[in-house]
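Problem statement: downstream parser choked on a complex file, so we are re-checking the raw output for the 4'-deoxy-4'-aminopyridoxal-5'-phosphate run. The parser issue turned out to be on our end (a line-ending mismatch), but while we're here, posting the original submission so the record is complete.
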Amino acid sequence: MLGRHRAVLPDWLALYYDDPLEIVEGEGRRVRDAQGREYLDFFGGILTTMTAHALPEVAKAVTGQAGRLLHSSTLYLNRPMVELAERIAELSGIPDARVFFTTSGTEANDTALLLATTYRRSNQILAMRNSYHGRSFSTVSVTGNRGWSPTSLSPLQTLYVHGGVRHRGPYAHLDDEAFTAACVADLRDLLGHVRAPAALIAEPVQGVGGFTSPPDGLYAAFREVLAEQGVLWIADEVQTGWGRTGDHFWGWQAHDRNGPPDIVTFAKGIGNGMSVGGVIARAEIMNCLDANSISTFGGTQVTMAAALANLDHLLRNDLQGNARRVGGPLLERLRTACSALPGVREVRGRGLMIGIELVRPGTDLADPEAAAAVLEGAREEGLLIGKGGGHDTSALRIAPPLSLTAAEAEEGAAILERVLRRIAG
Ligand code: PMP
């Protein structure tokens, strides 16, 4: 399969593992590969399997809808799309909210940038250093994480702001309050040199950047400064939405002094593997476009049916609460396991979104080789995790399906502890 893959697909579709994995089956928090080996899944395919693998309710919704009508168009009324939009509008907390569905997070952010630049009549965007928002022409242009940007030919004028990364950079040594004040001063300074930016786009917890987040309240403090010039805030909830962070349904709620953002984007897990993304904004912003539609496939019935069933399951079973109840102890368990390891700089995160930052022992230098080795070692012991980070891929990323049990958390933590002791000890 690897040879065939290489012969027809782009080289830049980078695969995990020296011996790449072909997953063919899944159930709950486990997947099986083509050779019949079973793995505990601590990454959910980068959070796309949000609740559980092969969730029966989602499978039933998909096959039921597929048997009735497989169709995609925004020209006709679409009941599952309206129903899901109603649910999401209410959950968003955005007043008079409108929802537009896309097929990916990239397209959702693309649309958010289109809305913000049109609404504000400005092509200036503020984005966070180390951020990731997608790889289309516009989203690449606001992605601060250079390691993930294939081009710098930007259609937007982007200015990068400090604050998304707590543990590195010029303000890392400051306490939370001073850190926030320094980042706000940096933002003020930037705003003094530009015309009138359209928006600030930010991930409440940076995903690809290695599950790192600013002190709670930073984006509320930013917002007060942005409001002076009418600059919008776009919260990219592609990784942080739907209860993943445990304490909050949306990641922005950790900053929520001033209420919901102007625009929220989402994708990944809400379809539990089906391609669903979207943008939420109040009507005034959403309706500023003079357009017929943007997407033919966004909101297709079968993906909407899957997302509705998945959302029902998530809410009915309080999986946000589960992320908190299982994720909190897992974070502490991993912190304890890593406390004496010289190759681990930090174990951080919230809910079921946990990052482990690896460094060359005795230094502050990122250690991408160690991160790659831990990934391989964990896989050999039957555990799938992810990696990410800043300019170096030196953070391990843990983001299991939100239904993870305490026993599975312990099983995965024990494997990680063994592997980390060997590689980072
Ligand atoms: N925003 C964030 C925060 C992401 O993590 C990603 C994907 N890693 C995207 C946007 C892009 O989403 P997609 O891959 O579905 O286009």
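For whoever reads this later: The first strand starts at residue 23 and ends at 27.
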